[in-house]
Amino acid sequence: MSSISQKLQAMHETIRRVTSGASRPIDSVALLAVSKTFGAEAVLEAITAGQSAFGENYLQEALEKMRAVDAGLDAGLDAGVGGINRAAHIEWHFIGPIQSNKTRPIAEHFDWVHTIEREKIAQRLSDQRPPNLPPLNVCLQVNISGEATKSGVSPENALAVAHAIAAMPRLTLRGLMAIPEPTADSVLQRAAFRQVKALFVQLQESGLSLDTLSMGMSADLEAAIAEGATIVRIGSAIFGQRDYS
Fold first, then answer.
1. Residue 137 needs a FRET pair 20 to 30 A away by CA distance; which of 5, 29, 130, 203 works?
2. DSSP character for 93?
3. Which pLDDT value is given to residue 166?
4. What is the largest CA-CA distance in the chain?
5. pLDDT tens, position by position, 140-189
6. Residues 6 or more apart from 9 whose CB is under 8 A from it?
7. Neighbours of 96 (CB within 10 A)
8. Inter-residue contact 117 to 151 (CB < 8 Å)
9. Alpha carbon distance 122, 135 (integer Å)
Protein backbone atom coordinates (compact mmCIF):
# COMPACT_ATOMS: atom_id res chain seq x y z
CA MET A 1 0.00 0.00 0.00
CA SER A 2 1.42 3.38 -1.03
CA SER A 3 1.89 6.24 1.39
CA ILE A 4 -0.84 8.20 -0.42
CA SER A 5 -3.16 5.22 -0.17
CA GLN A 6 -2.48 4.89 3.54
CA LYS A 7 -3.07 8.60 4.13
CA LEU A 8 -6.30 8.49 2.14
CA GLN A 9 -7.49 5.54 4.18
CA ALA A 10 -6.62 7.33 7.42
CA MET A 11 -8.40 10.50 6.28
CA HIS A 12 -11.55 8.59 5.35
CA GLU A 13 -11.48 6.95 8.76
CA THR A 14 -11.16 10.37 10.39
CA ILE A 15 -14.07 11.74 8.36
CA ARG A 16 -16.22 8.72 9.27
CA ARG A 17 -15.37 9.08 12.96
CA VAL A 18 -16.08 12.81 13.07
CA THR A 19 -19.25 12.50 10.99
CA SER A 20 -20.57 9.73 13.22
CA GLY A 21 -19.68 11.77 16.30
CA ALA A 22 -21.72 14.66 14.90
CA SER A 23 -24.72 12.33 14.46
CA ARG A 24 -24.63 12.74 10.71
CA PRO A 25 -24.91 10.03 8.03
CA ILE A 26 -21.54 8.44 7.30
CA ASP A 27 -21.79 9.25 3.59
CA SER A 28 -22.80 12.89 4.05
CA VAL A 29 -19.27 14.30 3.75
CA ALA A 30 -17.19 13.97 0.57
CA LEU A 31 -13.40 14.22 0.44
CA LEU A 32 -11.87 16.59 -2.11
CA ALA A 33 -8.17 15.77 -2.48
CA VAL A 34 -6.34 19.04 -3.12
CA SER A 35 -3.62 18.04 -5.56
CA LYS A 36 -2.20 21.47 -6.41
CA THR A 37 1.62 21.46 -6.80
CA PHE A 38 1.67 17.65 -6.89
CA GLY A 39 2.25 15.81 -10.15
CA ALA A 40 0.10 13.44 -12.15
CA GLU A 41 1.87 10.47 -10.54
CA ALA A 42 0.49 11.44 -7.12
CA VAL A 43 -3.01 11.86 -8.56
CA LEU A 44 -2.79 8.47 -10.28
CA GLU A 45 -1.75 6.87 -6.98
CA ALA A 46 -4.76 8.42 -5.32
CA ILE A 47 -7.07 7.25 -8.13
CA THR A 48 -5.72 3.72 -7.78
CA ALA A 49 -6.58 3.97 -4.06
CA GLY A 50 -10.17 4.91 -4.92
CA GLN A 51 -10.12 8.73 -4.84
CA SER A 52 -12.05 10.38 -7.67
CA ALA A 53 -12.38 14.11 -6.85
CA PHE A 54 -9.38 16.45 -7.05
CA GLY A 55 -9.01 20.17 -6.35
CA GLU A 56 -6.69 22.46 -8.27
CA ASN A 57 -5.79 26.14 -7.73
CA TYR A 58 -3.53 26.95 -10.68
CA LEU A 59 -5.07 26.71 -14.13
CA GLN A 60 -2.06 25.95 -16.34
CA GLU A 61 -0.70 23.38 -13.93
CA ALA A 62 -4.14 21.78 -13.72
CA LEU A 63 -4.62 21.52 -17.49
CA GLU A 64 -1.22 19.88 -17.96
CA LYS A 65 -1.95 17.51 -15.08
CA MET A 66 -5.33 16.54 -16.51
CA ARG A 67 -3.72 15.53 -19.79
CA ALA A 68 -1.01 13.57 -18.00
CA VAL A 69 -3.55 11.82 -15.77
CA ASP A 70 -5.67 10.86 -18.79
CA ALA A 71 -2.58 9.43 -20.50
CA GLY A 72 -1.58 7.61 -17.33
CA LEU A 73 -5.02 6.08 -16.92
CA ASP A 74 -4.98 4.86 -20.53
CA ALA A 75 -1.48 3.44 -20.12
CA GLY A 76 -2.39 1.77 -16.83
CA LEU A 77 -5.47 0.21 -18.33
CA ASP A 78 -3.49 -1.09 -21.33
CA ALA A 79 -0.91 -2.55 -18.96
CA GLY A 80 -3.55 -4.16 -16.75
CA VAL A 81 -2.57 -2.15 -13.68
CA GLY A 82 -4.71 -3.12 -10.70
CA GLY A 83 -7.03 -0.51 -9.22
CA ILE A 84 -7.46 1.50 -12.43
CA ASN A 85 -11.04 1.77 -13.63
CA ARG A 86 -11.06 3.84 -16.81
CA ALA A 87 -14.86 3.98 -16.78
CA ALA A 88 -14.86 5.83 -13.46
CA HIS A 89 -15.31 9.57 -13.87
CA ILE A 90 -12.58 11.72 -12.36
CA GLU A 91 -13.99 15.00 -11.05
CA TRP A 92 -11.86 18.11 -11.32
CA HIS A 93 -12.72 21.01 -9.00
CA PHE A 94 -11.28 24.49 -9.50
CA ILE A 95 -10.67 26.04 -6.07
CA GLY A 96 -8.39 28.97 -6.86
CA PRO A 97 -9.04 32.65 -7.62
CA ILE A 98 -10.54 33.24 -11.07
CA GLN A 99 -9.40 35.95 -13.48
CA SER A 100 -11.64 36.94 -16.37
CA ASN A 101 -9.14 35.77 -18.97
CA LYS A 102 -9.10 32.27 -17.44
CA THR A 103 -12.82 31.54 -17.45
CA ARG A 104 -13.03 29.78 -20.83
CA PRO A 105 -10.58 26.93 -20.08
CA ILE A 106 -12.10 26.55 -16.61
CA ALA A 107 -15.57 26.29 -18.15
CA GLU A 108 -14.31 23.79 -20.71
CA HIS A 109 -12.30 21.45 -18.48
CA PHE A 110 -13.64 21.44 -14.92
CA ASP A 111 -16.66 19.76 -13.35
CA TRP A 112 -16.91 22.10 -10.35
CA VAL A 113 -15.87 25.64 -9.46
CA HIS A 114 -15.85 26.58 -5.76
CA THR A 115 -14.57 30.14 -5.95
CA ILE A 116 -17.16 32.33 -7.67
CA GLU A 117 -17.56 35.68 -5.94
CA ARG A 118 -18.78 37.97 -8.74
CA GLU A 119 -21.68 37.84 -11.17
CA LYS A 120 -19.34 38.82 -14.02
CA ILE A 121 -17.20 35.70 -13.54
CA ALA A 122 -20.26 33.50 -13.20
CA GLN A 123 -21.77 34.91 -16.39
CA ARG A 124 -18.57 34.28 -18.34
CA LEU A 125 -18.42 30.69 -17.08
CA SER A 126 -22.05 30.16 -18.06
CA ASP A 127 -21.58 31.68 -21.51
CA GLN A 128 -18.40 29.66 -22.15
CA ARG A 129 -19.55 26.28 -20.84
CA PRO A 130 -19.64 23.96 -23.90
CA PRO A 131 -23.16 22.83 -24.82
CA ASN A 132 -22.08 19.18 -25.02
CA LEU A 133 -21.16 19.19 -21.33
CA PRO A 134 -23.58 19.22 -18.40
CA PRO A 135 -24.01 22.51 -16.57
CA LEU A 136 -21.00 23.46 -14.46
CA ASN A 137 -21.45 22.82 -10.74
CA VAL A 138 -20.53 25.97 -8.82
CA CYS A 139 -20.31 27.31 -5.29
CA LEU A 140 -20.50 30.93 -4.21
CA GLN A 141 -17.45 31.83 -2.13
CA VAL A 142 -18.32 33.81 0.99
CA ASN A 143 -15.86 35.91 2.95
CA ILE A 144 -17.47 34.93 6.22
CA SER A 145 -14.79 36.52 8.44
CA GLY A 146 -14.67 39.81 6.53
CA GLU A 147 -10.91 39.60 5.92
CA ALA A 148 -9.59 42.37 3.68
CA THR A 149 -7.07 40.04 2.02
CA LYS A 150 -9.48 37.17 1.35
CA SER A 151 -11.74 36.63 -1.65
CA GLY A 152 -15.46 36.10 -1.41
CA VAL A 153 -18.74 37.93 -1.44
CA SER A 154 -19.87 39.51 1.82
CA PRO A 155 -22.66 37.68 3.67
CA GLU A 156 -24.85 40.76 3.17
CA ASN A 157 -24.55 40.53 -0.61
CA ALA A 158 -24.67 36.74 -0.88
CA LEU A 159 -28.44 36.45 -1.39
CA ALA A 160 -28.56 38.72 -4.45
CA VAL A 161 -25.46 37.23 -6.05
CA ALA A 162 -26.64 33.66 -5.40
CA HIS A 163 -30.00 34.27 -7.07
CA ALA A 164 -28.29 35.86 -10.07
CA ILE A 165 -25.99 32.85 -10.46
CA ALA A 166 -28.84 30.37 -10.02
CA ALA A 167 -30.60 31.94 -13.02
CA MET A 168 -27.65 31.36 -15.37
CA PRO A 169 -28.47 28.51 -17.77
CA ARG A 170 -25.13 26.69 -17.99
CA LEU A 171 -24.39 26.73 -14.27
CA THR A 172 -25.87 24.75 -11.38
CA LEU A 173 -25.47 26.60 -8.10
CA ARG A 174 -24.80 23.86 -5.56
CA GLY A 175 -24.03 25.86 -2.43
CA LEU A 176 -21.41 27.88 -0.57
CA MET A 177 -17.67 27.71 -0.08
CA ALA A 178 -15.84 29.45 2.74
CA ILE A 179 -12.37 29.72 4.27
CA PRO A 180 -12.80 31.38 7.68
CA GLU A 181 -9.97 33.29 9.33
CA PRO A 182 -7.46 30.73 10.65
CA THR A 183 -7.54 29.97 14.35
CA ALA A 184 -6.53 27.04 16.53
CA ASP A 185 -9.50 27.68 18.83
CA SER A 186 -12.13 25.04 18.05
CA VAL A 187 -14.89 27.18 19.56
CA LEU A 188 -14.08 30.04 17.17
CA GLN A 189 -13.75 27.59 14.28
CA ARG A 190 -17.22 26.23 14.93
CA ALA A 191 -18.68 29.72 15.34
CA ALA A 192 -17.42 30.76 11.89
CA PHE A 193 -18.68 27.60 10.20
CA ARG A 194 -22.01 27.99 12.00
CA GLN A 195 -22.37 31.41 10.34
CA VAL A 196 -21.77 29.83 6.93
CA LYS A 197 -24.39 27.16 7.64
CA ALA A 198 -26.89 29.81 8.78
CA LEU A 199 -26.36 31.72 5.51
CA PHE A 200 -26.77 28.47 3.59
CA VAL A 201 -30.12 27.83 5.28
CA GLN A 202 -31.18 31.42 4.58
CA LEU A 203 -30.47 30.92 0.87
CA GLN A 204 -32.41 27.64 0.88
CA GLU A 205 -35.37 29.36 2.54
CA SER A 206 -35.25 32.04 -0.17
CA GLY A 207 -36.10 29.36 -2.72
CA LEU A 208 -32.67 28.16 -3.86
CA SER A 209 -32.12 24.41 -4.14
CA LEU A 210 -28.71 23.96 -2.52
CA ASP A 211 -26.97 20.83 -1.22
CA THR A 212 -23.29 21.71 -0.80
CA LEU A 213 -21.20 23.34 1.92
CA SER A 214 -17.55 23.30 0.85
CA MET A 215 -15.72 24.15 4.06
CA GLY A 216 -13.04 22.68 6.25
CA MET A 217 -9.40 21.78 5.69
CA SER A 218 -6.88 19.73 7.66
CA ALA A 219 -6.65 22.17 10.59
CA ASP A 220 -10.38 22.71 11.08
CA LEU A 221 -11.89 19.55 9.62
CA GLU A 222 -13.71 18.48 12.78
CA ALA A 223 -15.32 21.87 13.39
CA ALA A 224 -16.47 22.10 9.76
CA ILE A 225 -18.07 18.66 9.78
CA ALA A 226 -19.75 19.34 13.12
CA GLU A 227 -21.35 22.45 11.59
CA GLY A 228 -22.57 20.82 8.38
CA ALA A 229 -19.77 20.62 5.78
CA THR A 230 -20.57 18.32 2.87
CA ILE A 231 -17.18 18.67 1.12
CA VAL A 232 -13.88 18.98 2.96
CA ARG A 233 -10.76 20.07 1.07
CA ILE A 234 -7.67 18.15 2.18
CA GLY A 235 -4.21 18.38 0.58
CA SER A 236 -1.01 17.95 2.56
CA ALA A 237 -2.55 15.34 4.87
CA ILE A 238 -2.91 13.15 1.77
CA PHE A 239 -0.05 14.12 -0.53
CA GLY A 240 2.54 15.45 1.96
CA GLN A 241 4.09 18.88 2.41
CA ARG A 242 4.06 21.13 -0.64
CA ASP A 243 7.16 22.52 -2.31
CA TYR A 244 6.22 25.87 -3.89
CA SER A 245 9.70 26.43 -5.30
1. 5
2. E
3. 98
4. 54
5. 999 998 887 888 999 999 999 999 999 999 999 999 999 999 999 999 99
6. 1, 49
7. 19
8. yes
9. 12
